[in-house]
TrEMBL record:
Keywords: Cell inner membrane, Cell membrane, Membrane, Molybdenum, Transmembrane, Transmembrane helix, Transport. It is found in: Cell inner membrane; Cell membrane. Part of the binding-protein-dependent transport system for molybdenum; probably responsible for the translocation of the substrate across the membrane. This is Molybdenum transport system permease. The lineage of its organism: Bacteria, Pseudomonadati, Pseudomonadota, Gammaproteobacteria, Aeromonadales. It holds the Pfam family BPD_transp_1. PANTHER family: MOLYBDENUM TRANSPORT SYSTEM PERMEASE, MOLYBDENUM TRANSPORT SYSTEM PERMEASE PROTEIN MODB. Belongs to the binding-protein-dependent transport system permease family. CysTW subfamily.
Length: 226
């Protein structure tokens, strides 16, 4: 691969790792609220979280591009506060990826929290364990497979992003040119040899990662259920 392709691979892995890490911090409280709340606004919040699943990526990318523009709202505030543009930057890609990959992390966790019983939590509360202690000692061990799956889905989904990252970041080598955009450039230039290398590497990496994840989950199930 060329130096540009290697840089795109590194940028993509960096984006996927940062996005997944942030989502694993933000998603559990949201998923817990969605699984336990009876608030009348919960259907609206659920719909907003799931919107990237049904919305064309270019539509979401277009409105995020407007929001991140230096001439409007968030983008103008960011430029005035930090002195750098949000659109066509790595941070812009990161914020867009967090929003676009949010349902792939939130929904597995929400399902796990819904299916989790209350007896253990009630017993822990009677013993004086606080919310954080209950999370790390009760909730996390019981739902660990769902956390692993959520992380894998969020990471893999970010690796394959195209429409949103193209709208928000454009195609700036070393700054916003991720692997999917580099692959598109090779196909557009009819450079199928390099396109095969990038596409095959992305497919192989995603497959290996999912096989490892399913293998870990299967071994955990065998230890729990014999």
């Amino acid at each position: 691969m060329s130096d540009g392709d290697l840089l795109a691979v590194w940028l993509t892995l960096k984006l996927a790792a940062c996005t997944t890490g942030i989502l694993l911090l933000l998603s559990p409280p949201l998923a817990w609220w969605l699984s336990r709340s009876r608030h009348r606004l919960r259907p609206l919040v659920e719909a907003l979280v799931a919107l990237p699943l049904v919305l064309p990526p270019t539509v979401l990318g277009f409105y995020l591009l407007l929001a991140f523009s230096p001439s409007y709202g968030v983008g103008a505030w960011w430029r005035d506060t930090f002195g750098t543009p949000l659109a066509f930057s790595f941070l812009g890609l990161l914020f867009a990826s967090i929003l676009y990959s949010l349902p792939f992390v939130v929904q597995p966790l929400t399902s796990a929290f819904v299916n989790m019983g209350n007896k253990e939590l009630e017993a822990a509360a009677t013993l004086g364990l606080g919310p954080l202690e209950r999370f790390f000692h009760i909730i996390l061990p019981m739902t660990l497979p769902s956390f692993v799956m959520a992380a894998a889905l969020g990471f893999a989904h970010t690796l394959g992003e195209f429409g949103v990252v193209l709208m928000i970041g454009g195609n700036i080598p070393g700054e916003t040119q991720v692997l999917s955009i580099a692959l598109f450039d090779h196909v557009e230039a009819m450079d199928y040899q390099h396109a095969h290398i990038l596409a095959g590497g992305l497919m192989g990496f995603s497959l290996i990662m999912l096989v490892l994840v399913y293998g870990v989950l299967q071994r955990r199930q065998r230890r729990l259920f014999g």
